[in-house]
Every structure is written in structure tokens, then in C-alpha cells.
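Sequence only, no structure available. Ideas?
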Amino acid sequence: MKTIFLLLILFCFISCKVRLNKTVWIHGSLNCNENADPPVQVVRYNGNTFILRQNKCIHYEAPFIYLFLGNKKALLMDTGATEDENQFPLYATVRKIIDGWEKEKKINHPIDLIVAHTHAHADHVAGDSQFKNKPRIFVLGLTVKDLVSFFNIENWPTQEGRIDLGDRVLEIIPIPGHQQASIAVYDHATKILLTGDSFYPGRLYISDWQAFKLSIQRLVDFTTTHKIAYLLGNHIEMTKMASKDYPSGTRYQPGEHILPLSVNDLLELNHALKTAGDKPTHEIHANFIIVPK
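Reply:
I predicted one. C-alpha cells follow.
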């Protein structure tokens, strides 16, 4: 009986999925000098998927970072808001995850790591330097041209690209509007749809209104033909209280909104954008805020 119990625990450690609507994330401190949280929080969503969050006391943006592992390659989406590896040891953390995963899975060949980005803003690319010039690591450039070439997107932004990590295919969906090189990433294995800074529980800063409207419609269309487990963005800025966000720059967020948003939330955003028409409109919703720039 004890052996069976231990096997069940091991199976769940490798295969069970974390309930992201119940996950508690490190969320800073009133006094960051007393903060005892790790610089990088690591949550294993399932056997081959990891979600990382940067400590808010290191950088108030506290971006989320996503690691997908396949039989031949791994894909890291974003590198956080801090370059200094002493403050923010992202490379060391990712290296430890991959090395441990290879041993656990008894992988007898090294896994190549691809470092890509949901978009090119500084709080998502600052850690790139930690990965450059490391063996078996490719850091993708930050331009639309780089994305089009690497993911084989023939017609930006209306055509999707894809990447196969080895028995694990991810779709790449161009969604400019927040930033011109913004993309969404859909993982067929977990049914997770990453939406970057274009859609998350917080302030949706829009630099190109028309492009953003078209991108959100593109995401809505995608969700009608694909099963979605979670829509996951790069930040949490909303509180648990409907329509209430934290002040920009805060390093302490007790009572945060959950990380995932739903397809219904996406439909609500799409409807609001359509209703506003061609006029950029600031609107506060229960789970996000539309902020034209």
C-alpha cells in the first residue's frame, strides 16, 4: 500500500496539473529590505511546463516567464525585467530546471533552449544577456523580421507560425497593438494560450489602437477553433476587488487577482473595443483596464 501511495505521488508530481486559479504567487513586501522570497518563484504546472515569476522586490513589474519542454528543444518565453544575474539568477534557475528534467525523464541527449519573447519591451527582455553565448542556447531577436523568419510566418500579422519542440507543437499568433512585435503562444499539449501584455489582469496599454483591435479579434477567432485551458499574461496588476488595480510601481500586492483570465473575459474585451470603434477609449472592467497610449 505504501509503495502504491508513493507511486501515485510520483505520478502526480510528473503528470498532474496545478490549478492556476488557486496558485499563490510571491507578491512583494511592505519593506523590501525584509523580503525573504526567492528572486524567482518556480511553479511546475505539469511534468513538462514551468511558470516562473520575478520577485516584486527586485523589480515592481514582477513579470511571469514560461518554460515549455519537448523531447528535442525547450522554449523560454521572456527573460524578465532585470539584467543582473546576481540579483535575478534566471539563467541559473532555468538551467537547474532543465538539467533536473533531463535526469528525471532519462533524456540521454542535451536539450537545446530557445529564448523568445512575447514582445520587445524592456521588462521582458532584460535577462537576455544571461543566456547569450551559452552552449546550446539560441536567443531570438526582437523585431518582427526576426519573428517572421524564425517561426516561418509568411504573412504578418494575419498568418500563424509554429514551432515543434519534439512531440510538442506550439502555435505562434501575431498580435501587434501593445507593441509591434507582440505575439501570443498556444501550447497544444496543455491548451494554455499565452497573451503577453496584450491581455492580462491589469492595465492593457495600447500603442496602436487599430492593430490591437484586429489582434484581439484574431485571438477570439482562434479560441473558437481551439480548446483553451487558461489564458495567461505576463503580469498581475488587478486586486481581487472587481475593477480595482494596484498603483503603478507598487512592490507589495496582497490580495492579488488570479493570474488566468477566461475566454469570456477576452470576449468582453473584444466587445468593448468594437463598441468604442475608431475612438481610443479608456475603460475600467472587472478584470482588466483598457488604457490607450
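Residues 1-15 have pLDDT under 50 and may be disordered.
Hope that gets you unstuck.
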